[in-house]
Structure formats: structure tokens, C-alpha cells
Amino acid sequence: MRAGATAILLLAATARAFAGEPESCKAVRMAEPGWNDLAFTTGIGITLLNALGYEAKSQLLGIDVIYTSLKNKNLDVFLGYWDPAMVAYYKPYKEDGSVETVRTNLEGAKYTFAVPTYVWEAGVKDFSDLHKFADKFDHKLYGIEPGSNQLMLDAIKDPALGLDGWEVIESSEQGMLSEVSRRTRDKSFIVFQGWAPHPMNTVFDIKYLTGGDKFYGPNFGAATVSTQVRKGYLQECANVAKLLNNLTFDVDYENRGMAYIMDDGLEPADAALKAIKAEPARLDTWLAGVSTYDGRPGLAAVKSALGLQ
Predict the structure, then answer these.
(1) Do 114 and 213 have their domain in common?
(2) What percent of the chain stands above pLDDT 70?
(3) Where are the beta strands (DSSP E) in the chain?
(4) Where is the signal peptide (predicted)?
(5) Residues 256-260: contacts with CB under 8 Å, at least 24 apart
(6) Does 307 fall in a domain?
């Protein structure tokens, strides 16, 4: 009887190990605010989780609603904490411990003035160089949607830059990039709001200007993006936590993935699948030590589910 009882206990332990994570972890609730970079990376996360046997879904929500929902445990995972852009949003949730940061998933992001490389080679390498070529620029800076160009407006007001009388042309992201396209075709001068990750970095040959630390921060308005979760989630769902700790990106990869959405018109899930299939070696890092929901080896399962075997 004692041997039989031991065998039963061993079988039960094996069954528990194979069962993987608790049933409460199967549904993974995610969200993003409608930014193309976060739509793409969230698409990657959902594609991997679903291939592992989870039921991952994302909602399109405002940043403030995302944080409230994480605090109230109505969301589990957010892949898009931009620092410093979201510091003020995150501050109260950081202080009360209701939202936890897992890790940085992207380094090298930036946001500042940009020019075509031929303009940079002509001598416009710093904010302080702009006024020297005022006539070539038609005394204009090109921005995006009204309300999103305050830093450009602040630069114009700074007497040290000599931009008095310059105008910020506000339209939209697409309108701005259409103007960049037109100007680069005839090699005329333009200075515009640039950022990375974004397909503009691969579509156009551009350079970012130094000298904007006062407005955009150091290192070309450098930023990082981090993964965040609701309090306690990493302990409750350790296998998803392992994936989240592995899941990192780079600017070039996101540039290409965003182009699938913005230029090719793919849905985020389709863009994610295309990007994964284009560079399947990334799966080795992302899925190291990760299992399926029911406890099987994760890498083999994902490759099989995505047609990579």
C-alpha cells in the first residue's frame, strides 16, 4: 500500500508539473494606446502567447485608462511604458506599487529635429546651425498634429537659436512625411520632427540634429520603452513572466515591423507574424526557458504553430 501511495503521489506531482500554469493565467489581457510601435510589439506578444496555448487579447485604450485598468486588475500586461514621455502617468502607480515594471524592452528610441542627410552634409548638424540657412528652410519647421509640436514652438521662442520669425507647419504625421518626400526628391532643405522607431528611418536617408537637449533631453531625445504588469502578476503567472523577461526588441526591427502596418496596411497580428517569419532566430532568445500553457517545450510548439518547422 505504501509503494502504491508513493506512486500515486508521484503521478500527481508529474501531472501538476505538466499542467503548466493555473487556469487563471490562460487569458492574458493586454492593451496599447494606438501607437504603431506599440501595436507592433503588442502584436508580437499576442502571437507568441497564443502559439503557446494562452488566450491573449489586446484593447485599444488611452494611457490613463491603461494604468487605471492595471491597478484595478482589469489588465495584465502593458509593453509600452515610454520613459520619459509617460513618467507623469506612471508616477502615482509606481508610488502605490499597483503597477510593476518588468524590464526595458527597447533602447535607442529618440525624438528630436531631423533633416535629410544632404542637408546635414551642407552644414546643418546642430540646432544652432538652423538660422544660418534660414532662407533655404523658408523659415519653416515641419511638425505633426496641432498640439503635438510644443517643443518646436519652444525652440522658436529661444533667443539663443535665432529662430525669431520662423513658423511651425502643423498638419499630421502623414502630411509632414509627404512634405519630406517631396523635398527630398528635389534635394531642397527641410527640418522636421523625427523619431525612432519609425519607418521614416528606413524610407528616408536622414540625420538627427544635436543641440536640442534643452527641449528634448540628451542623446537626441533618448527614450526607453519598458514592459509593465499589474501587481503580483509575475508571481501568479511565472511562465508568462519568463517570456516577458525575455521579450526585447531593437529600433531597426520595430522600424520594419511598423512599416508592415503603416505602408503595407497589415493588421498588427499579421505584421507580427510576418516579422517573426522574416527573422525566426529571435525566437531562440524570446522563448528560452518558456513552456506552453500546459507545460510542453515552448520553442518547438511556437515554431510548429507558426509554420516554421
Answers:
(1) yes
(2) 94
(3) 27-32, 55-60, 77-83, 99-116, 140-142, 167-169, 192-196, 206-208, 223-230
(4) 1-19
(5) 256/199, 256/202, 257/40, 257/41, 257/43, 257/44, 258/36, 258/37, 258/40, 258/197, 258/198, 258/199, 259/199, 259/202, 259/203, 260/40
(6) no
Task: Write out pLDDT tens, residues 276-306.
Answer: 999 999 999 999 999 999 999 999 999 999 9
How many other CB atoms are there within 10 angstroms of residue 135's CB atom? 8
Distance, in Å, from the CA atom of 36 to the CA atom of 38, rounded to the nearest integer, reads: 5
117 lies in the same domain as 215: yes
Mean pLDDT of 142-146: 92
Residue 16 lies in a domain: no
Question: pTM for the full model?
Answer: 0.82
Write the DSSP assignment of 32-45 as a string of letters: E-S-HHHHHHHHHH
More confident site: 20 or 302: 302
**CATH code of 73's domain:** 3.40.190.10
Tell me: pLDDT of 222 over 60: yes
Which residues form the domain of 92? Answer: 23-109+223-302
